[in-house]
Design a protein that fits this description.
With about 55 residues, the chain is of the alpha+beta class. It has one domain (about 5-45). Helices cover about 45% and strands about 10% of the residues. The chain has two helices and two strands, in the order H-E-E-H. The chain has helices spanning about 5-20, 40-45, and strands at about 25-30, 35-40. It has a two-stranded antiparallel sheet. A hairpin with a 5-residue loop joins strand 1 (about 25-30) and strand 2 (about 35-40). It is elongated, with a radius of gyration of 15 Å. The N and C termini lie far apart (about 45 Å).
Amino acid sequence: MSAKDAASVTVDLDLHDLYENAPCGYHSVGPDATLLRMNLTESRRLRTRGNAEIVL
């Protein structure tokens, strides 16, 4: 792996960590209002684990 590739992987990991452990909750919603993804912060606040079904 080149130094440039290694740096790119490091940046990707840092961004992933920043998203997952942000001080606020983030989520993505599909066009039909289906919850597609949420970060760990929001998951912890809602007390869900992994792919748990959330009914709002």
